[in-house]
Each structure stands twice: as structure tokens, then as C-alpha cells.
Hints:
The chain is an alpha/beta fold.
Amino acid sequence: MSKGLSDYIELENDSVSYLKLKNGGDIYLKNSSKEGTRSLDSITSQVYDESAFIADIESIYAASNASSALVENSSKILLSTPSAKSGFYWQRLSENNPEDIEKLCEQVASGNLYKDFPGFYYFQDSKGVLKVIIHWLAHPVFSKINDTYQGGYVQYRIDTDNISEEVAQREYNLKFIDPSVSVFNSDLVRNGAILEGFTEDINPDCDYYLGVDPSFYGDDYFSITVLEHNKKANIYKVVQNYRKRKQTTDYHLYQLGKIIDYWKPKRVCIESNSGQIIIAEQLEKSYPELNILQIRTTGDSKPVLINRIILALEKKILQYPENAVLVSELLNFRRIGKSMEASPHCHDDTVLSLAFALASCPMAKDIDNPFKDLNFDELIIE
């Protein structure tokens, strides 16, 4: 960001948590905890990023008052993309307004309500709090993409980011959708559950891909999902799922080897967090010619993996047996804030192994090229 503002500011240092502006002030970057502003004083402006997704935002906000106690005209900015219609952020955003905040957001997103230029609107509520609504219509590049891409900018984000309609509307179109709900729509899950059962028949006209979610502890399952890709019909079918727990590492490796030898997959995607990397390393030693993709699941990568399943369901290119464990796991998979996980007392191993299998296959390439309708010459800003 500082490089983008090089015409206006110059940094005296290069630090992750503290920036000194030449002939200017200081910028502190703190973690989201009540202790984040401890030992700081005379802070003129405080910015709380992604406020709607911070569980303890109210207590953090209250604890920071002392940091600006000696400043006469300090400011606090609660900044976030939309989320649930509950909690401290939503309460502060929705109170004391001349009109319902959701209606205001809809009007800004439609381009009918703005100040100075479309996509930018602000007002003071009855308590004197300044509230600002910013939409992609105000962005010089994104607004041009909306004019040139078939389906508009939101559809562009769905196609290029491989995200669901729900996520795109919340992240990019000012929609307040409660994220503490089921991740997978029950109708879409039902539409995908059309196979009579698993099959052991290998189709020579199809390619096969494996997703592996290793586990060796407690009640967690070791799960392997085999995907059959019919290139002509562009359909992905779950043809086998191995799911066992409380077995030795050698036992699981033996079963994984049998599955690989039988289906001869073009690629295997395996989770390699922490101790799981042992399985990946053993696999590479046993099958040196096998195309193996290792994935570390993090707070950033997991939503991308899960949204690929949602996208496959929405595009009706994913099928699986109606009596598969996968069905119940999909229906019991929840989004809580920005995290995604199984409901209490439920499991998500087949969901994750399916996500890994989809990550190993060419699904993203099968989707229409998201750049086909773009004229890049028109997107260049002089």
C-alpha cells in the first residue's frame, strides 16, 4: 500500500508491525486482542479491519480507549465486508440511521445512490457517526470489468476465484448473509446424489483423480476419495471412498497403495499438515512417477478448497451415491465466521478428501475461460 502512495509518503523503515513515515507519524500493526493497543498512547486514528469477523471485537474496541485518551480529536474506524446481521459490528452499523442500512447498501450496489461518483456513499447518523459504503462500482478497473464481462463483475469473481454465488454476494456486492449456516445448500446436495452406488468398473475413456485426508488420531478418519472424470460429458463422479479410523499408518498406506494400483490416477492430492506429511513422503518414495500434489490447509486455503465443491454442485458437474457418507457430511458442514468445519459430533473427512480430489483434477480449466470476453486494452488505466 505504501508503494502505491509513493507520490505522497516515504517510509523511513521496513517492518511488519511498525512503520515510520518520513516527516510524518507512525503506523502500528497489531493483532486482534485486547492487549493489542497496550503501551500505546496518543493514537490519533485506530482502524479495525474485518470487524464483523472478530469474535471479541467489542472488548478489543473498549480496551483501546486508553490509547487515545490524551488525543483531542481521535478517530476509530470499524471496517469490514458484510457478514451476519448480529454482533457488535452489525449493531453499530445498523443503529441510528435515517434508513435501513441494507436498503442503503442495495441502492449503492445498484448505482442509484452515491456521493461524487457511483459506488461511494456516506452519511452521518443521528449520533454524529460517519458511515461510509464503498462498492466495486467506485473502482476504475472493476467497474470496467463489469461492462465488458458477460454476467458482470460479480459473475467474473465467481468464475475467476472459483467461489459460490453466496460468497461472491457477501464479499463483493454488499449483501449481509449470515455465515454461521450450512455451507452446502441442501437442494444442491440432493441434486448431486444421483448415483445408485459406488462402482468398481474402470472406464477407459475417463481419467481418475485421488484426494487423501490422512489421520491417525482418536476418532478422526483416514479418508480417500476417487473421482472419475468423464471428459466428454465433463462430469465428475465419486466412484470410491475409503474411510477408516483407529488403524496403523502402515495399514492405511497399504490400502492407499491398493487404490492407486487399481485406479491408476493421473494425480493424487494429499493434505500435508504437520504429521500428515509422513504419508505424503512415503507415497512419493513408493510411487516416484506418480503426480502428487501436497496441500497445507490453512484459514486461507480451506475456503478455496470448499468453495470448489460448491461451484461443482452449482454447475451440476459433481455426482455421488445417494447413500454415501459424503451426503450427511456435506449437510452437516458449517461456516462459523470465516472458519469452515463439521457440526459438533460430526465429521468432515470425506468432504475434505473430496475437496482435495477436486483440487487435483482439471475442474477449473473445464469452466469457461473467465478472460475470454475481456479486452485488456480497455482495462489499462492511463
